[in-house]
Design goal:
Chain lengths: 345, 329
């Protein structure tokens, strides 16, 4: 008898990784709390008006690079995660969608996608999502953090990220009595250039008064989730998550924000939500959280298959795009100022 | 490696980088899961979900084997070097847990060592791109590194894969889904291994039983792309070694003692026959290389024959008890 080659595989041994459609540019045109809609369109109009010229400039640049058919999408993030003072007076999703659409029209552009921040903590794929359509994205991202090793770390100590904090350096040793602490040593940034910029980021907090308190994720961590969604880099066991949902004509919006999908597509024929490049045009007070989000992303271990898939897709474009190895290199920010001009008629 | 492997390792332990690994280090700990009953397949998968959102790997045949996602630990430490030389390792160590048939738990830590790509430590994301790799500075001699690692004490002075593999066991055992009792008191066995990796090198194995109880040291060679096979070989060796030791040093002597004292040994004999004996399944089906490695190991150690002899002894004892039941229960 001759030798026979037999192969035996079980599908669960080789996880598959979904691929995600990607545009050239995703522009975040603003970010507001639900309470900010209390006085109608005043706040959003101001944000979108400020964002408009930068959106135009970014669009021009991308079209110049990738041609008239460059895929550009715009999005807007509403914070429904931070506990708000009065849930009763919260505007309904349909009301906010109307306000946003009208304000964008006024500013001279369209908003393709509306996202909600609680949908970054737990992704909901469709309206009224049940447990099957949900993915705990904040838990997933927190689980991908690999703390930078301090000099001397040989694996004998457990990582401190379990405490809910992530830093970009070596913390100052704990000093019990600060007043008479002659041995105070400063914290030190890893890989600093002469001087340190030491950042310590709170990833989540726990309400210790409750026995089984859930993590309350910080704005920094949720921003990291949001940026990773926009870069198309998140998966739940290989599956794409928080895919944009488009309400059919006549399909009503749910009344509660928690019943809304994570990402709602507002315009027909929109370019893909995720993109090779993500630009955020934001008010200045988001600067710290966005910086923290970048540091978090720099400490994540990505699935090599997802990174490769993204890089391959970019390279196979009609006008090939070369992506940097590091996902943070695909993000950019513009923080507008607080200067207002009063027109004298 | 032969192209006709029958088991694909989904996570390439050999990263796609310019410098190829020239050494591989690891440590495997094997013990019983602290749960009275056998864990169901779904409970095992839930238990192995150590990283939310990352896939748990499972195979049903020939025995059910469920593997957790790899955990990543950052390190930047001096290496334990025998004789002369020094080395500093910067990068990440991988570790995962394996549950076999809902009964046996293994915690395994492993790392590939490569030449440093820079004279200084680089930015962290560089090391995160090559998970499971440490870059070694000051070019120590590989033989001195292997001897230094294999002979390192506890607590470790160099890379502490012992603590990392221990921690993953603890993390699993502390799960509140387990009832924290076992049908049998068996100890944790440790296998520490080191592999020399060179292109075109044929896989070889050398096993040494240490004078420390339940501690084995394995030296291996192979090509860099053989590393996943070598890691799996060490895990399989550790599992089978644990089975043999547990049956030979715990089950049989205890039953003999029980019979001598007229106590009923049937529970632990039946536990061995029903729960442990079916797990003896040499991994020769995985690939021709694994088959060659395992058969070469068997030809020196006769492990399967030793195990069969112990199984026969257990059946003997069981039959004795049936014929002449003990007086005291």
């Amino acid at each position: 008898m001759t030798a026979v080659d037999v192969s035996y595989d079980e599908v669960t041994q080789t996880p598959k990784v979904d691929s995600v459609g990607l545009g050239h540019l995703s522009v975040e045109t603003g970010h507001l709390y639900l309470d900010d809609f209390a006085d109608g369109d005043r706040q959003i109009s101001r944000q979108l008006e400020q964002a408009a010229p930068w959106l135009e400039a970014a669009t021009k640049r991308v079209r110049k690079r990738f041609g008239r058919n460059a895929r550009i999408s715009t999005c807007f993030l509403v914070d429904d995660y931070t506990p708000s003072g009065s849930t009763v007076e919260q505007p309904k999703p349909s009301e906010v969608v109307d306000i946003i659409t009208a304000a964008a029209d006024q500013a001279g552009f369209k908003i393709d996608y509306l996202a909600r921040e609680a949908g970054c903590a737990i992704a909901c794929e469709r309206p009224y999502s049940g447990p099957r359509d949900k993915s705990a994205l904040a838990d997933i991202v927190a689980g991908l953090i690999v703390e930078e090793a301090a000099v001397g770390a040989n694996g004998s100590r457990p990582p401190t990220a379990q405490t809910g904090w992530l830093s970009n350096g070596e913390r100052s040793p704990a000093v019990s009595v600060a007043m008479d602490a002659p041995d105070w040593r400063p914290p030190e940034e890893f890989g600093k250039y002469r001087h340190s910029v030491f950042v310590d980021i709170e990833l989540w907090s726990l309400d210790n008064s409750q026995p089984h308190a859930e993590r309350q994720y910080s704005c920094s961590l949720l921003s990291a989730v949001w940026q990773l969604l926009r870069l198309g880099l998140l998966r739940n066991k290989g599956q794409a998550v928080a895919k944009p949902y488009r309400f059919a004509p006549g399909e009503a919006f749910p009344d509660l924000w928690s019943q809304l999908p994570s990402i709602t597509q507002l315009t027909q024929d929109a370019a893909p939500f995720a993109a090779y490049q993500a630009l955020s045009v934001l008010p200045p007070y988001y600067r710290a959280a966005e910086h923290a989000a970048e540091i978090i992303i720099d400490h994540l271990r990505f699935d090599g298959a997802v990174l490769k898939q993204t890089a391959d897709r970019a390279r196979d474009e009609a006008s090939p795009v070369t992506l940097p190895d590091n996902p943070v290199g695909r993000m950019s920010h513009l923080f507008f100022d607080d200067v207002h001009v009063t027109h004298n008629d | 490696m032969s192209p006709t492997t029958t088991d694909r390792d989904p996570r390439p332990a050999v990263p796609d980088i310019g410098t190829r690994p020239w050494l591989g280090f690891g440590e495997v700990r094997t013990c019983l899961i602290q749960n009275l009953g056998t864990l169901s397949p779904s409970a095992t998968v839930a238990l192995m979900q150590l990283t939310p959102g990352s896939p748990v790997i499972k195979a049903e045949r020939p025995v059910r084997r469920v593997v957790s996602p790899e955990q990543v630990t950052g390190v930047d430490c001096r290496l334990q070097v025998a004789r002369e030389g020094r080395g500093r390792a910067i990068g990440t160590v991988l570790s995962h847990a394996v549950v076999t048939n809902g009964r046996i738990l293994q915690g395994t830590a492993h790392v590939a060592l490569t030449e440093a790509t820079s004279k200084e430590r680089r930015e962290w994301r560089h090391y995160l791109r090559h998970q499971g790799v440490v870059e070694v500075l000051h070019s120590p001699d590989p033989h001195n590194l292997i001897d230094g690692y294999l002979a390192d004490t506890s607590p470790a002075r160099g890379l502490d894969l012992a603590s990392i593999s221990d921690r993953i066991i603890d993390e699993v055992q502390q799960s509140n889904t387990l009832n924290h009792t076992t049908a049998l008191r068996a100890s944790t066995a440790v296998v520490r291994w080191a592999a020399t990796l060179a292109p075109d090198a044929k896989p070889t194995v050398g096993i040494a039983k240490s004078d420390v109880p339940n501690f084995h040291v394995i030296r291996l060679t192979g090509a860099p792309e053989d590393l996943p096979t070598l890691i799996r070989f060490c895990e399989e060796f550790a599992l089978h070694e644990w089975l043999l030791t547990t049956v030979q040093d715990v089950i049989v002597p205890r039953a003999e003692k029980d019979i001598a004292r007229d106590r009923d040994p049937l529970d632990s004999l039946l536990f061995a026959l029903n729960e442990l004996v079916p797990l003896w399944m040499p991994p020769t089906h995985l690939s021709p290389d694994m088959k060659a490695l395992w058969e070469a190991m068997e030809s020196r150690t006769h492990y399967s024959r030793l195990f069969e002899r112990q199984v026969a002894r257990i059946r003997d004892l069981r039959d004795q008890v049936k014929i002449r039941p003990p007086r005291r229960f």
